[in-house]
Amino acid sequence: MIDPVLHAWGWEIPVYLFLGGMVAGFMIISGYFTLKGHHKHSDFSSFYLPHISLFFLSAGMFALFLDLEYKVHVWRFYTTFKFTSPMSWGAWILLVVYPMLLLNTLVSIPKSFRNRISIFDRISDVINRYPALVKNIGAANMVVGAVLGMYTGVLLSALAARPLWNSAMLWILFLTSGLSSAAALVHLISPDKTEREVSAKADNGFLIFELLVIVLFLVGLVTSTRAHKQAADLLLTGPYAPVFWGFVILAGIVLPLIIQLLAVNHKIRHTPVAPLFVIAGGLLLRFVIVAAGQASVIP
Amino acid sequence: MSSRYAMVIDTAKCVGCMDCVVACKTENNVPEGYNRDWIVQDVRGTWPTLHMEIRSERCNQCDEPPCVETCPTGASHVHDRGGVVLVTKELCVGCKACIAACPYDARFIHPDGYADKCTFCIHRVEQGLDPACVAVCPTRCMTFGDINDPNSQVAKLLTSRKWHTLKAEAGTKPSVYYLT
Amino acid sequence: MTTLSRRKFLKISGATVAASAVATSGCSLGNSGAGTKESGIRTVATYCDLCFWKCGAIATVKDGRLWKIEGNPLDPLSRGRLCPRGTGGVGAHFDPDRLRTPLLRRKNRGDEEWVAVTWDEALGTIAEKMQKIKAEYGPEAIALFSHGIGGNFLKHTLKAFGTPNITAPSFAQCRGPRDVGFRLTFGEDVSSPERTDIRNAKCLVLIGSHLGENMHNTQVQEFAEAVGNGASVIVVDPRFSVAASKAKHYLPIKPGTDLALILAWMNVLVQEGLYDKDYVDQYGFGFDHFAASISTATPEWAYIETGIDPDVIRETAREMARYRPATLVHPGRHVTWYGDDAQRSRAIALLNALIGSWGRKGGFYTPQSMDVPAYPYPPYPKPLKEKVDNPGHRYPFAHETITTGIREATITGMPYPIKGWFTYATNLLHALPNDQETIRAMQNLDLMVVVDVIPSETAGWADVVLPESVYLERHDDLNVEWFREPFVAIRQPVVASPHDQKPGWWIALQLANKLGLEAYFPWKNAEEYLEKRVTAAGLSWDELKEKGIIRGQHQPIYYSEGVPAEFPTPSGKIEFSSPQLAQAGFDPVPRYTRPTQGPEGSFRLLFGRAPVHSFSRTQSNPILADMMDTNEVWVNANAAARLDIADGQYVRLRNQDGVVSNRVRVKATERIRPDCVYLVHGFGHTARGLRRPFGKGASDAQLVTRSAVDPLMGGTGMNVNFVTIEPAEDNHA
Ligand SMILES: Nc1nc2c(c(=O)[nH]1)N[C@H]1C(S)=C(S)[C@@H](COP(=O)(O)OP(=O)(O)OC[C@H]3O[C@@H](n4cnc5c(=O)[nH]c(N)nc54)[C@H](O)[C@@H]3O)O[C@H]1N2
Ligand SMILES: Nc1nc2c(c(=O)[nH]1)N[C@H]1C(S)=C(S)[C@@H](COP(=O)(O)OP(=O)(O)OC[C@H]3O[C@@H](n4cnc5c(=O)[nH]c(N)nc54)[C@H](O)[C@@H]3O)O[C@H]1N2
Ligand code: SF4
Ligand code: SF4
Ligand code: SF4
Ligand code: SF4
Ligand code: SF4
Ligand SMILES: [Mo]
Q1: Which of A115, A140, A159 is the last residue of a domain?
Q2: From CA B70, how far away is CA B101, in angstroms rounded?
Q3: N or C: which end of chain B has fewer CB within 10 A?
Q4: How far is the CA of B20 from the centre of ligand 3 (A)?
């Protein structure tokens, strides 16, 4: 029997981390396509995807807001910057993320959205006059996205009090997982064939890499102190093992990976099943890590 | 040298009566269902050869407090007197990062929404009184004082008796010491 | 092993909130001094009433609202520190379950159906019935059960009315056997607060006295002091108590066999010549007969009874001798265990006599007191009949009134009928053994009055319930204590009562008026009464009101300081062999008999205290309930495993007579013998008005259907019940 857990954080924080991670992935993907000039062929990655990102990010921030116990003080995040506090970093990073996403949407405004808000049209025209600027916007989106993705992991890994989180692999894991979920969504909904193909292929890479990171993450814990080993056991054999193995690893990574490998190699047709599983797996990963992390203690 | 407040608790005398918990509750109006301090009975061995250490626990007022590091708003801070870790409730957003950061589970969210925990009764200490829990303890097993003052009772106890701190491996440098 | 995790603790506490939120909804928390717009801080010195120790306290009121209570630094009992119950006393004032107005029974006794009435109506009804009972059966047919100093005024009214039948559970259910055993030996009681010099003891022997859980303040403080000074502590207890965790020697005795151990200790001291020969020669009487009588009580013999290794018995006996006379074998307090209790207590007295600790530093000091005259009342009418509780002096050494004797007379009508009961600050259904018997007696009454602060189980059976103000809202009698040093203390109101509650003195006075006993109440209010007593003693009334305590001159308390060694026994000496006992047909030197054993597979039911509660009176106190809101049944971890019962699982206890307890969680622990289980007393409330504690935990009192009566003094040994454990059907976590 394990002790009931001190759940400082409930569902809101994992949702926030998941959405944040996915937005990070979107930014990297859409930034990549912008950098590559792909916006000239497709509206999706540089216009719709940043829009989706804005929506996801706002939803994530709303989840965070819901979690705050003193909501009317929320503005206090922005009266100071605390160098040592990832939460503070996060608050400020978000302030950079929004304009970045906005800029990306302005790289190519689809015809149907033209002539609505003239200032946007004008800015878009200016941007497009400087190809280097477009490339920079793409690159900047990739960089900010990467920072955002890392932050979602660092938020937890900075908390040494919870041995499960106390691993440098965590930010790589969350970044990778954010990428794979984002790629899966692009694969799932992009109307553009190239984008779909590229992201499916990339997603396979991300998933393989994620598996590797998880192995390293766990090996790192198991070979560390007793507290860290006990923390890993929560996932490996403990109360969180069924969800971890069954849903995060098997259904969330291995199964979709197999399906997508077959699809990419034209053995089977693409199916929405694989990307959906990847996205669900990404969400569950955050839940499992947040919950099990809070259950892990220094003895 | 500046002052560094500390609490030294003699587990050989503590009977686990919870008077310290009750006194904290009334002194600081700690709401029902929450406590700033608590009792742990650490039992080892098998009947009838047993050993039991009883500890009155609270925020360790760490010298390297992760709760302060992790606080995004500066609500959690180190007080300029005695290195006491405090929360300014007007600054607190209730994000609970400090709760997750504390290896001792010493914090909780007050029903009014802010993070709360032991203050070492700084309001009393600044009036020259002992913290409420120290002042009430019927076994007088708790001693409070400035550990940087070699003549203080706390400093003397630590040089004359065996002691340990909690979860020293967490690296937070606790200021609550347990004599054995 | 089982460490109480902070996380678990938080979770448990969380559950408390949820439950209590329901209980308190719809009733305003007593806002003291409602209507007064007081601001700022004010303090009032008074003394505590959460138990009978009566520690001096200082209450602080902030902006008109009671804030906190701390020890009075002037008070020698508390030395400025209250115990957790005293500190949590604030909660007594705020308790949302408090009685608010006088209540008259509307339906059958025990149905707990009431109509609220005025004080005038309630007291008028009572007076009328009392007069009727008096006319028919005489004033002796009214009995008063009253526990604690608050009852003094009501006692006065009832003595003036003419009854001698006034009693408290503190004798036959608590310390009676101890006082009898010590009286028979030294000619004097240990009294309360106990005259034990724990602070100066170099070796302290605790036989079941679970100091640290039993929170009698001075005792605990001095215990810690002794431990801090490196005293050698020897603890005898079937349970690894908190005190045991401080002990150098822990003796996990088989329950009920302590007398065998004590005899064996004395055997060793005598055989090895380790006892205080000079002391015994000088003060002892009948030593040779005593020595001969215990000569067969060898450690090897005791081992078979107690399970304690003979070497350990020898070693601990030598330890006691090493530090004598500063070796204190604590006399215990709640000693009504097995029916042989007065003799066991006498054996403890004798062991102390061998060590020479009586009258000596580190043993038993001679208490001192201030000379404060009683109020000059007119003499009480002389009752025509003798007390009803002990007909024919069936229990020849009972020097106080036996509660259960009055109960029996109420049922049988012999030697004469009892038709009216008053209870003041005692919850008889939790305090006396065999609650069905108590109910049977109550059903025989024409008048049942309960004066209480909360709707207790006993109040549920009353015809009239009178809501008293809690101690923080009233004056009470002076505490003129017998202690290390003389002092007098005052209890005075700190805040106003939140509803229509009234102080005990007011109730007593009003009732007396209705009974035509005005002559016995020459004062208008308690203040007048107190002031007269205080000034008659030559003390300053203003000083006492302000400081709460006036201390007297320090006086000698040890023989070595010049206290004369006097023993008011028939022989004028310490009676090692007791002619009194022999004459009455009892063993002049204690003799061991094996306690009866329970049915196969059953556990002996033991019980005791938790530091944050007093008996059955504090479970609805919101602060103390927040500390501990239920009890658990302690079961040896191996025994639990054998029964396939998990730690934390809900079970019910069934006793030898088929009585089944409330459901209660198991505490599977190494800290208890495998042949007994343990409950903290006072939980498992069944009174509906006690909304917060209702149904929480198991009541030991309900399971104590049997008791072994002490033939010397009528005490009810209650550790003679056995239970089996069954999983509770609704066994949710
Ligand atoms: N089964 C079992 N029985 C026992 C014991 C045990 O451990 N187990 N212990 C025994 C011992 S040692 C003792 S001393 C007795 C104690 O027996 P009691 O003195 O009867 O103790 P309580 O059960 O607390 O009942 C006290 C009642 O007084 C009420 N009360 C509290 N404060 C006030 C007040 O200010 N005014 C008025 N009017 N009422 C008040 C409470 O609400 C409660 O109903 O019990 C004895 N009986
Ligand atoms: N917190 C708190 N403190 C209190 C009180 C309270 O209600 N709450 N009540 C006060 C009062 S009035 C009294 S009388 C005292 C009572 O307190 P004490 O006199 O100290 O103790 P008891 O209630 O007699 O006994 C309880 C202890 O005896 C052990 N025991 C049981 N059976 C045996 C046995 O056969 N042999 C031995 N050696 N030990 C045994 C139990 O395991 C337990 O540890 O407490 C006082 N102090
Ligand atoms: S008040 Fe003192 S003795 Fe009681 S539990 Fe707290 S520290 Fe221990
Ligand atoms: S014990 Fe916890 S709350 Fe207290 S200073 Fe250390 S980390 Fe912060
Ligand atoms: S809950 Fe309050 S004190 Fe704690 S980290 Fe967040 S803002 Fe700081
Ligand atoms: S120092 Fe003050 S705030 Fe901290 S536990 Fe003690 S009483 Fe409570
Ligand atoms: S021992 Fe505790 S409850 Fe009893 S009078 Fe003293 S402070 Fe009050
Ligand atoms: Mo008692």
Answers
A1: A159
A2: 7
A3: N
A4: 6
- Ligand 7 centroid distance, CA of C224 (Å): 16
According to DSSP, residue C366 is labeled -
Cα angle: C104, vertex C471, B136; to 5 degrees: 140
Q: Is B114 on the interface with C (CB under 8 A)?
A: no
Phi, psi of C677 (to 5 degrees): -125, 165
In which domain, by residue range, is A125 found?
Answer: 1-159
B97–A85 C-beta distance less than 8 A: yes
Residues of C in contact with A1 (CB under 8 A): 646-648
Of C59, C353, C302, the residue nearest C181 (C-alpha): C353
Say if residue A60 is in the same domain as residue A116. yes
Q: Report whether pLDDT(C446) > 90.
A: yes
Same domain membership, residue A175 and residue A283: yes
For the domain that residue A59 is a member of, what is the CATH number?
Answer: 1.20.1630.10
Domain C-terminal end among A114, A144, A159: A159
Alpha-carbon separation of residue A209 from A185, A257, B100, C336, C654 (angstroms): 18, 11, 29, 73, 62
Examine the domain organization and report whether A120 and A91 are in the same domain: yes
| Entry pTM | 0.95
Kindly provide the ipTM of the predicted complex, given to two decimals.
0.94
Task: Give the pLDDT mean for C586-600.
Answer: 96
Cβ pair C372, C480 in contact under 8 A: yes
Nearest to C705 by CA among C560, C605, C588: C605
Most C CBs within 10 A among A2, A5, A6, A296, hence the mutation to make, goes to A6
Which residues 6+ apart lie within 8 Å of A237 measured at CB? Answer: none
Residues 76 through 95 of chain B touching chain C, CB cutoff 8 Å: none
Determine the 3-state secondary structure of C503 from DSSP.
Answer: coil
C250 and B48 within 8 Å at the Cβ level: the answer is: yes
Contacts of C11 in chain A (CB under 8 A): 4, 6
Centre of ligand 6 to C-alpha C176, Å, is 41
Q: What is the pLDDT of residues A81-117, one digit of tens each?
A: 999 999 999 999 999 999 999 999 999 888 888 888 8
Q: How far is CA A284 from the centre of its chain?
A: 13
- Based on the domain organization, do A55 and A114 belong to the same domain? yes
Position C533 pLDDT exceeds 50: yes
User: DSSP letters along A69-80, please?
Assistant: SSGGGGGGGGS-
What is B5-179's CATH number? 3.30.70.20
Residues present in chain C in total: 733
Domain identity same for A136 and A119 = yes
In this complex, do A225 and B90 lie within 8 Å of one another by their Cβ atoms?
no
Only one residue has tokens 């409730």, namely: B89
Position B109 scores a pLDDT of 95
Name residue, tokens 């190809």. Answer: A131
CB contact under 8 A, A77 and B72: yes
* Residue nearest atom 8 in ligand 6 by C-alpha distance: B24
CB < 8 Å to B70, chain A: 84-87, 158-159
Residues of B in contact with C69 (CB under 8 A): 26
Please tell me which residue of chain B has the smallest CA distance to C624: B22
Nearest to C84 among B10, B22, B41 (CB): B22
Question: Are residues A132 and A6 part of one domain?
Answer: yes
Domain total for chain A? 2
CA C58 to centroid of ligand 7, rounded, Å: 13
- Letter string b/e over residues A135-170, b meaning 16 or more CB atoms within 10 A of that residue's CB: bebbebbbebbbbbbbbbbbbbbbbbbbbbbbbebb
Q: Which residues of A touch B (CB under 8 A)?
A: 6, 8-9, 64, 67-71, 73-74, 76-77, 79-80, 82, 84-88, 90-91, 155, 158-162, 225, 227, 294, 297-299
